[in-house]
Specification:
Pfam families: RVT_1, RVT_3, zf-RVT. The chain has 45 helices and 27 strands. By secondary structure, the chain is an alpha+beta fold. Strand 6 (about 250) and strand 7 form a beta hairpin.
């Protein structure tokens, strides 16, 4: 029976086979015809009624037979909710015959509980029939242990009492004569018949009513044709995708074709065994000579520090929840959702591997999945192998990678942009890492991860035999990108050595520019050299050397040579013969971008327009709702030109063409159908808070993407591209002060065009103030006009340093108040100054972190758009609440439409000359305007009266937009959801009356509204449990002290408490600061205070612990901070440099309660405190609870 549906042809045969436990989910059939035999029936018993009564518990009788005193009936047996047989003493083979039946995945011998589950409408029947009395030759009833018939959970008490009385009466007459017994049985039979007919009638009425209501709801909520088409389309897509990835045959190198699945598995195993086997490493001395030791002692100390639980948890949070699982079948979402169950074991395993050297072999099994690179692939070369690792291995590897990425920029050449995948020798990686200066223990940890792997190839869903490789890296391993970078550093070292020895000459972008010998990006390597036989031989020797040492090979079939215009034909022929690579004269594209952009710029990017139109054409027939269209436009269509826009400035005509295609798709009602464009595209591109839908203006988005290139030229002067541009276009100035010269490249003119946008968003961060102009520079945060643009007579010079006291690092308050207007003076005094002066620098004002982002630049351009309109705050609040309501996107967009009167009402259609009649199609009593349609129409008014939770009696505004805004603003989000669904239902009913000629009553519409809300409640996803638990304060290790800090804004109080390993209080402190307007700044101020206390105590290995992760990360980083708290971070780093043993640790708010409660009394009294060996009285309880906890 394995692999086939269950067949209930002969019940005895089937049940004889089901003697062992069987899992329920292996049963494919939900019900099947089944014969039931009832033997020894009394002669005068109404057998038809009896059969009908029993059959009703099985959802009706299919067939029935009555022969003599034996009754048989054929019913549908529900396999998922089967019967169980109650056995009293010896089993009766002539009664309902069965050896046992499935229930809950096991074979059970009784059928009573199964009968209870089979009964429809919550009813049960317990039938006991007496055996025939052969000695007396007549029917008799034996004494019964309980009533013969009774209804369980009956909804009709009178019926229930009748049958109980009948059972008692029958028991009392059991000892009378045979004639009397026959009369009793006849009475019982009549009662059974009446009961069966009554129940049947009630069940039929209930079934008809429920069926009718269900059909109405289905008809209202769904379009059967649409549902069928979507279902068909889904299955067609799934089947088509499966046909694409199915490997039905392979053609081997000798031309032999194989079709057998086992043979295909064997060939795949041999192919990948050969691919991942080592060919032996040549002496890498020549490669290693050009690699310098770049990993410092501090970097190795950072890498070798013990891994913590928080690092593993952070890694798990960052993993894709539903990415393809490994051999164990568990995706990351399983561990994320059930961390409270499996977290302890997972953490223990990972930390033992990371810190204690435990082997990782047990979780390092990898499935190789083959993804076709071409249509109808017949060779394994045409598949892209993707390695599916287990989540446990990814947790270990990604935790290592997260640390490693912080030191990669110190050991990788600037010509590398990504990684170079391919076959790599493990010994070569080890040698290169050793030469770079990585610690031996760190190298061993890396090698343990990559050498303990085992593979199996998945072909058509089935796994092949396991094999162990001896080389290579997996595409899918979190460590692989970093190891590929390290490996390819060997090629860069060879190129640098050859150029240093004069064997190789690179290319220059300008006379004084850099000489570039090679560029690496993803799996491409672009090499520059002389187009001579000597130059070609040098390149070939370098590639051969690198191949012998690393194992990576050049794919000459995909390689191409490009020559400069002054190269002779003889040189081209000689180089081509020596390298054996095809040549090309005019490369059109590289990495999806045009290499040459001439005068016809629109035609150069026409392929992007064609791709957008092609995507729309493929999706137009898939019946997307407005919500689906919104996601499709934002996530797919607008993302197509993003890569090209980050490098080139598109012509305005091209941007408008793309927007017109998107607008046509948004408003159209079907493939090939034109829709009504209710507003211009630029209004849809306003943010949702501003009354739009958040689509992109392509021209503004293009400028924002290019502005990021200008930001990089300002802040990353040592990058390869910045050095190349600076050498050619602005060797003696910076990007902001340069002028556009003549003979500039197209891409440089594009980047230069964004300089104005950058200038509007840049802000000077005050240090010494000696280089910042008071009137001409932008240096005051939140100042509306940006620059002051006025002179001040009482100032000796126009520098910000004039406003800072010379003796102390603080503002000269008296001078500022007397010089500037009150609002400007207040803004200036808010700017924090560091304890030690530093040089000023430029930051981005649009982000709190001070770093440029495309999002904030786009918002800046929208705000500066002269055609933009200002929306009243009332309407901003309305739209903000609208997008927070938990309803489907199509409903939110519908409410947005009616807020702007963008729907096809009769009046709107008449204004566009599309209809002649403007009367309401439901009542015909007035013009169909929004007010009448949703408020005044009798049908709508009745609906609102039947929704008590949406009380609209207090809203009498005449304008519909005001009414809509005020209702949503006054109702809670839950009631607003009901209100919005009601509006959507009214519109749906109106359309049904017009297009489907169907009328529904107000009661039916209200019933549908409540039903829809119940459906939304049913599909509301449960929020996955947070990975972090409610952590408590932990004592520091022995001989170490821990300082906890916290901060609060406005009248800020920074609070610090110092404790030893026993939890004893050594110091508690709280200081009051006025004018701190953000929690961000208050936390940084408290952090600085904690660092000051640590320096004053002069203790070694102190721990500073707080619950502000952002501040802690900034203090641990070495990158210049440009955020709002940059002055505090600068001071903290300066103090930390004089005390290297200081450690900064993040903890949860629950573990930082003592530092959190200290400022309560301080803020109330507006005074601080400094206490030794104790805390204030109001905090003693919390201090006592913390000290009771066990140390780590």
């Amino acid at each position: 029976m394995e692999g086939r549906p269950w067949l209930f042809r002969k019940y005895l045969i089937l049940f004889d086979r089901l003697l062992n436990p069987v899992e329920r989910d292996h049963i494919r059939l939900s019900s099947s015809p089944y014969w039931i035999k009832i033997a020894s029936c009394p002669p005068e018993y109404d057998k038809k009624d009896l059969l009908h009564a029993i059959g009703s518990t099985f959802r009706g009788v299919l067939r029935s037979k009555i022969t003599d005193d034996v009754c048989r009936l054929r019913v549908n047996l529900d396999v998922q909710k089967p019967l169980r047989r109650e056995q009293d003493g010896k089993e009766d083979d002539t009664s309902i015959a069965a050896k046992g039946i499935l229930l809950g995945g096991k074979i059970l011998a009784s059928w009573e509980e199964g009968l209870k589950e089979q009964v429809d409408s919550r009813e049960e029947a317990d039938l006991n029939t007496s055996k025939e009395n052969n000695n007396k030759g007549e029917s008799s009833l034996k004494e019964l242990k309980r009533p013969t018939w009774k209804r369980i959970l009956s909804t009709n008490h009178s019926d229930h009492q009748k049958f109980v009385n009948a059972g008692v009466k029958r028991k009392g007459l059991a000892e009378e004569s045979g004639q009397e017994n026959m009369e009793v049985e006849s009475a019982v039979g009549i009662s059974l018949s009446k009961w069966a007919h009554t129940i049947k009638g009630k069940k039929g009425e209930i079934r008809k009513r429920l069926t009718k209501e269900l059909e109405i709801l289905m008809k209202e909520d769904r379009d059967d044709e649409t549902l069928d088409r979507n279902t068909t389309n889904f299955h067609n897509c799934a089947s088509a995708r499966r046909r694409v990835i199915i490997i039905s045959k392979l053609i081997l190198d000798d031309g032999k074709e194989i079709n057998d699945a086992s043979v295909i598995h064997d060939e795949a195993k041999l192919y990948f065994e050969k691919l991942f086997n080592t060919n032996g490493v040549a002496n890498p001395r020549e490669v290693l000579e050009g690699i310098e030791e770049s990993i410092s002692i501090e970097a190795n100390e950072y890498l070798l520090a013990p891994f913590s639980e928080d690092e593993v948890k952070t890694t798990l949070k960052g993993m894709g929840p539903i990415k393809a699982p490994g051999p164990d079948g568990f995706p990351a979402i399983f561990f994320q959702k059930y961390w409270h169950i499996v977290g302890k074991e997972v953490l223990g395993f990972c930390l033992r591997v990371l810190n204690e050297g435990k082997e990782v072999d047990s979780v390092n099994m990898t499935n190789i999945v083959l993804i076709p690179k071409v249509q109808n692939p017949t060779s394994l070369v045409n598949f892209r192998p993707i390695s599916l690792c287990s989540v446990l291995y990814k947790l270990v590897a990604k935790t290592i990678a997260n640390r490693m990425q912080n030191v990669m920029d110190t050991c990788i050449d600037q010509v590398q942009s990504a990684f170079v995948p391919g076959r790599v020798e493990w010994d070569f990686i080890k040698e290169v890492m050793n030469k770079m200066g990585f610690a031996r223990k760190w190298i061993e940890l890396i090698m343990k991860c990559i050498t303990s792997v085992s593979y199996t190839v998945l072909i058509n869903g089935s796994r092949g035999r396991i094999f162990n490789p001896s080389g290579g890296l997996r595409q899918g391993d979190p460590l692989s990108p970093f190891l590929f970078l390290i490996c390819s550093e060997g090629l860069s070292a060879l190129m640098r050595t050859a150029k240093k020895n004069g064997l190789l000459r690179g290319a220059k972008a300008s006379r004084k520019g850099l000489e570039i010998s090679h560029l690496l990006f993803a799996d491409d390597c672009m090499m520059f050299g002389e187009a001579t036989e000597k130059g070609a031989r040098v390149l070939k020797d370098l590639l051969n050397t690198y191949e012998r040492c690393s194992g990576q090979c050049v794919n000459f079939g995909k390689s191409t040579i490009f020559y400069s215009t002054n190269t002779t034909e003889g040189s081209k022929a000689a180089v081509g013969r020596l390298l054996g690579v095809r040549s090309s004269s005019s490369p059109k594209k590289y990495l999806g971008l045009p290499n040459m952009v001439g005068r016809q710029k629109k035609e150069a990017f026409q392929n992007l327009v064609d791709r957008i139109a092609s995507r729309i054409e493929r999706w137009s027939s898939r019946l997307l709702s407005q919500g689906g269209k919104e996601v499709f436009i934002k996530s797919v269509l607008q993302a197509i030109p993003t890569h090209a826009m980050s490098c080139f400035l598109f012509p305005r005509v091209l941007c408008e063409k793309i927007e017109s295609i998107l607008a046509r798709f948004w408003w159209q009602k079907g493939p090939g159908k034109r829709g009504i464009h209710w507003c211009q595209w630029r209004f849809l591109c306003r943010s949702k808070e501003e009354g739009g839908l958040g689509f992109r203006r392509m021209a503004q988005f293009n400028i924002s993407l290019l502005a990021k290139q200008g930001w990089r030229l300002l802040n990353f002067l040592n990058s390869l591209v910045a050095r190349a541009f600076k050498a050619k276009y602005f060797p003696n100035t910076n990007f902001l002060h340069l002028r556009l010269g003549s003979l500039c490249s197209y891409i440089w003119r594009n980047i230069w065009a964004t300089k104005g946008t950058l200038e509007k968003g840049l802000l000077w961060k005050v240090g010494t103030g000696s280089n910042i102009s008071i009137s001409q520079d932008t240096w005051i945060p939140d100042y509306v006009n940006g620059r002051l643009l006025s002179s001040f007579d009482n100032l000796q010079c126009d520098k910000v340093a004039e406003l800072i006291s010379s003796n102390e690092t603080e503002w000269n308050k008296e001078l500022i108040v007397n010089t500037f207007p009150a609002d400007v003076a207040e803004l200036i005094l808010r700017i924090p100054l560091s304890m030690e002066p530093h040089e000023e620098f430029l930051a981005w004002s649009g982000e709190p972190m001070g770093v440029f982002s495309v999002r904030s630049s786009y918002k800046l351009l929208q705000r500066l758009d002269p055609t933009a309109y200002a929306l009243h705050n009332i309407y901003k609040d309305f739209y903000r609440r609208l997008w927070q309501i938990e309803i489907p996107s199509k409903m939110k967009i519908f409410i947005w439409k009616i807020s702007w009167n963008y729907i096809a009402s009769k009046v709107n259609m008449y204004n566009r000359r599309l209809v002649n009649n403007i009367l309401c199609p439901r009542c015909g009593g007035d013009d169909e305007m929004l007010n009448h349609l949703f408020r005044e129409c009798p049908v709508s008014a009745e609906i609102w009266r039947m929704l008590p939770e949406v009380n609209l009696t207090g809203f009498t505004n005449n304008e519909f937009s005001d009414w809509l805004t005020m209702v949503v603003a006054s109702l809670s989000l839950e009631k607003s959801r009901t209100f919005c669904i009601a509006l959507w239902s009214i519109w749906g009913d109106r359309n049904s009356r017009i297009h489907e000629k169907s009328n529904r009553s107000s009661r039916e519409i209200v019933r549908f509204i409540y039903s829809y809300i119940q459906d939304l409640e049913g599909i509301r996803t449960n929020i996955s449990k947070n990975l972090s638990v409610n952590r408590k304060w932990r004592n520091p290790p022995a001989t170490r002290l821990k300082i906890n800090f916290d901060g609060r804004r406005n009248i800020s109080a920074d609070r610090v408490v110092v404790r030893d390993s026993s939890g004893n209080i050594l110091l508690s402190s709280a200081d009051i600061h006025k004018g701190v307007h953000t929690t961000f700044a208050a936390e940084a101020l408290a952090y600085r205070r904690a660092t000051q206390i640590a320096l004053n105590m002069k203790e070694e290995d102190m721990i500073i612990e707080g619950d502000s992760l952002t501040v802690i990360k900034k203090c641990q980083s070495t990158v210049q901070d440009k955020s709002q708290i940059n002055t505090y971070i600068y001071d903290i780093r300066s103090m930390k440099s004089s005390m290297r043993s200081l450690t900064y640790v993040f903890t949860l708010r629950s573990a930082n309660r003592l530092a959190h409660v200290l400022p309560v009394e301080s803020l109330r009294r507006e005074e601080g405190f400094y206490l030794l060996h104790r805390v204030p009285d109001f905090a003693e309880g919390q201090a006592r609870r913390d000290s009771e906890r066990e140390p780590d």
